[in-house]
Prior knowledge:
The protein has no helices and 13 strands. Helix content is 0%, strand content 38%. The chain has strands spanning 25-27, 39-40, 50-53, 61-69, 80-89, 97-105, 114-122, 128-135, 144-150, 158-164, 186-190, 198-204, 216-222.
Amino acid sequence: WDLPSTHAGGDQLGCFTAANYYNTVCIPQPSTAATGVHIDSIADRMQQFFHYTSNRGSRSVWTSSHAIQKVPSASSLTKTEADIRILEFNISNPRAIFVAADYEVTDPSDSLAWVFLPSVAMDKVGNLQGIFSVSGTGASEHPGLDAVYLTPGSSAFLSAGYVASPSADGDARGTDSLNYRWGDWSGAVLDPSDSCTVWVVGEYLPVNRTTTPNWFTQIAKLAPITTCTN
């Protein structure tokens, strides 16, 4: 990940502590603060950082998504945000992948929320669509999944609506020492049938759990941006 940074201190993968990487936690889950159960470690260690999109042979790009800390540090428990990068390949010398665009983003529905496990895809005209896993700051807020999009020329992601609501869906409260958390992954992929439609997926809990939780998978089809047509 040795690419130009959006931060003066360099990019730090969310809450990674090399000496204790299995038990690293930094994204508070407000409704479970009393039990000390947090969203698990390293922000997006199970994510696929690079996602290739052929766009039916047009505008072939790589999108790269990960969570970084607002103040990069290997030990401090600071707010996390997403970093979305668009990578392209230079076919002439020097033949190398370069950063074509870089977006430092927070949750468009709650600027104070922690963002983790982001995943986006680019359609054939350059719109970005995808999903952010988010955890709000309120005591009654549960972690959720926010569908997001960004159009060319824009500087900020907008929300297409929650796929799993922080005010209605569940969390892993009261799971004693098992340290269950809100999901381990999310994903976005461009539909190859039209190269405009984006599908997103995320792991979530439908209700609060006081015993070992059973995970559910939420799949959503995001409507194509109006500028993208067949």
